[in-house]
Amino acid sequence: MSIHYNETIYRQSQWAFSFEGEYRIYSEALERSAAALNDAKAVIESGELIIKEGLVWSSWLMGIHELLVFVGLCGLGESALGFRFGLPLATDATIIRTQLIAMRHELELTADQVTEIYREDLRRAGMPWPALCAWCSSWFMPRDGWHKHT
Questions:
Q1: pTM over 0.85
Q2: How far is it, in rounded angstroms, from Cα 20 to Cα 30?
Q3: Which of 1, 78, 96, 102 could make an SS bond with 87 (beta carbons 3.0 to 4.6 A apart)?
Q4: Residue with more model confidence, 32 or 71
C-alpha cells in the first residue's frame, strides 16, 4: 500500500518513495556544477533535471520528516493529501542526489561534488543542519564509478 503525497510522489514504506512518469526539478547547485546529460532515462541541462520514466528511491531524511516537524526542527512541507506534515522538504534534493548517483558513470562529477549539490539543495529547501545531513548521506554513497579530477 502506498500513500499518495501530492500529484506525483508516493510513499512505498517508511523509507521508500516513488513517482511515475516525468518529473522536473531545477537546482542552482546543479546548474553551477555544469553537469549535462541526455539519455533515455534522464536529461540534465542548465540546472534542470528531467526524469523521464519515474523513479523509486529510499531516503532516511524523508523518512524522519514527520519527527523533525513534530519536535519543531523543520517546517511543514508543501500541502499533500494523505500526509499530515506535507511533502518532506528534502524531496527534490533527495531525488537529484539519487539520480546523480545512478548516472555517475555518465557524468563528469565526483562524489564530493554530488554531496555538495545535495548540501546546497537541502539548505535551500530549509532543512536543519544541511551540512551534517549531506555528510551522513555521503557515507552511504557508492565508492566506485565516479569521475576523478585530473
A1: yes
A2: 23
A3: 78
A4: 32
